[in-house]
Amino acid sequence: MKFRGKIIDIACLNHFTRVVTTISKLTKMCVLRLTPDNLFFVLSGKVANGGVSMWCELSQANFFDEYQMEGVSSEDNEICLEVTPENLSRALKTVQNAKAVKVKLTKKHCPCLTIAAELPTLSSVSRVVTHDVPVDVIPRRLWHEFKEPSMPDFDVSIYLPPLKTMKNIVDRMKNLSNFLVIEANLNGEMNLKIETDLVSVTTHFRDLGNPPWGDDASQDGGPSQSRDPESMVEARVDIRRLQQFLVGQQVNPSKAMCNIVHQSVLHLILLHEDMSLQYFIPAVA
Amino acid sequence: MPLSTQSQGDDEQYVLVANLDNARNLSNILKAITFKDHAIFTATTNGLKVTVEDSKCLQANAFIQAEIFQEFTIREDLVAFQINLTVLLDCLNIFGGTTTPGKIHKNKRIKKKLHLRWDSTCFLSVFCDAAGVSTALRMCYKGYGYPLTLFLEEGGVVTVCKINTQEPEEPIDFEFCSTNVTNKVILQSESLKEAFSELDMTSEVLQITMSPSQPYFRLSTFGNAGNAHYDYSKDSDMMELFKCTETQTNRYKMSLLKPSTKALALSCKVSVRTDNRGFLSLQYLVRNDDGQICFVEYYCCPDEEVEEN
């Protein structure tokens, strides 16, 4: 198993650091999958994290100037590592003004992702910084847990309102209730609702637009074809999970949308220039 | 604006309808009296009074006159209910946004945001902050047993809140009347703000001495580190009015008066009055975002009376 990558472009380094920081806000630990073309940050839905799962995909060519990897074997040409993204993020933040940053899979006292960079100083001699971030290698027999999630058979797909607006509202709603109902229809309307003994609050978003999955859905004869555009589908979720997702978003994505499987799953999709992020929050009764 | 397009028919079922273009003109002043969860709302044709009490010894009132509202319609002589103030504030601030009004703060926000983002959408958001997007409010109440309904709108997004109300308790009448006032001063808040922010919190009481002779107006604390006195001379620039007829020294529980610091922070002037029983009345003149005047007052019972020789 070998991995070596080098980032030279300062904007790429900045983006990569931002992606890792976003991931670190979403989860304490996750799996990093390395393939010849891509990097994936994966969280599989387990009871421990409230059934939430995440799939973040980056194309290595968008970030790395040099990228070499040799997987576990030639048939299974990939590497699966369990990482604590916050450690990676912290290390990357310290090397933001380096000319080049190398990321390597190494073995110190345990397997590590080593981040090494030369930093400029006031004198003529550069300062070399090395961070060894411990990781756990995930054996092949467990790889099936970290596969790309399939697109759920959603009832409604809708573009999200500005994330900042959503975050402000969800932050306040969290003071009032533990659970939130998100409902949407094919008319571009979405409501966020909470209801307790003390108070009920509903926020109405209009004219959000529905992503044009149309053709695919109609081929499958999917439910969206016959759905009345006014009728709402909903998912009741733990408000902290939604808030956690929103807190992590530091940059406006090019596209933000969600798919709702009625009373089952809330599937959030963010598309940025250089990465895509999917987040699944299960509905609770 | 969507809120004002509600049909006349709807309005007839409400005993109270109040509209504000800027919800902060209500939420900011309510923050000055939020030290307990529950508040009593009393509405008359004059406007709205919100009362919060603590252990029967302290009462805070916020007055928002009918003129502050863009619309204020009341169909009964008196409308009163009790409501959870913390929940109400969360609803009024549902769109987040700043808690403090004023130009200076807006400039600060612009500066912060320019660092973070640099794509075309962020330029728009910076522009919006500069323009000061505010939340519009429509508050409706159908009467006894019904929830208080709030319609809040910002940037085309509407939030509807229904907050349960309870039977209002009768607010305490401290029987504080101007005829029994022995001492009165009006100060510019600036001067008191400093003192209040430095008050020794290890002192159980705040002692107020008012006198026609030295030290005129003195705030004292008795804490672990020692005693501290803040003196304000009657000739001071900060002293707008000084009418003291007799020397009085009274002590008030620090824990009761501490919340009044929030009202002081918002105000530009404060009047301090004591009556012949040593009861304290603090009245704060607060200017809202639009420069309109509202009042907040605190009444406090004395802790013990100290005889002055």
UniProtKB/TrEMBL annotation, chain A:
Keyword field: Cytoplasm, DNA damage, Nucleus
Annotated spans, Disordered: 210-232
A Pfam entry, by short name: Hus1
Transmembrane segments: none
Single biological process term from Gene Ontology: telomere maintenance
Subcellular location: Cytoplasm, Cytosol; Nucleus
InterPro entries (UniProt xref): DNA_clamp_sf (IPR046938), HUS1 (IPR016580), HUS1/Mec3 (IPR007150)
UniProt GO cellular component terms: checkpoint clamp complex; cytosol; nucleolus; site of double-strand break
Assembly, per entry: Component of the toroidal 9-1-1 (RAD9-RAD1-HUS1) complex, composed of RAD9A, RAD1 and HUS1. The 9-1-1 complex associates with LIG1, POLB, FEN1, RAD17, HDAC1, RPA1 and RPA2. The 9-1-1 complex associates with the RAD17-RFC complex. HUS1 interacts with POLB, HDAC1, FEN1, PCNA and RAD9B. HUS1 does not interact with RAD17. Interacts with DNAJC7.
Family stated for the protein in its record: Belongs to the HUS1 family.
Biological function: Component of the 9-1-1 cell-cycle checkpoint response complex that plays a major role in DNA repair. The 9-1-1 complex is recruited to DNA lesion upon damage by the RAD17-replication factor C (RFC) clamp loader complex. Acts then as a sliding clamp platform on DNA for several proteins involved in long-patch base excision repair (LP-BER).
Protein name as it appears in the record: Checkpoint protein
Species per Swiss-Prot/TrEMBL record: Astatotilapia calliptera (Eastern happy)
Name of the gene encoding the protein in the UniProt record: HUS1B
TrEMBL record, chain B:
SUPFAM superfamilies: DNA clamp
Family: Belongs to the rad1 family.
Main localization (coarse): nucleus
Compartment list: Nucleus
Gene Ontology biological process: DNA damage checkpoint signaling; DNA repair
PANTHER family: CELL CYCLE CHECKPOINT PROTEIN RAD1 (PTHR10870)
Full protein name: RAD1 homolog (S. pombe)
Keywords per UniProt: DNA damage, DNA repair, Nucleus
Statement: the UniProt record of this protein carries the keyword Phosphoprotein: no
Keyword Protein transport: no
Entries under InterPro entries matching the protein: Cell_cycle_checkpoint_Rad1 (IPR003011), DNA_clamp_sf (IPR046938), Rad1_Rec1_Rad17 (IPR003021)
GO cellular component terms attached to this protein's record: checkpoint clamp complex
Organism expressing this protein natively: Haplochromis burtoni (Burton's mouthbrooder)
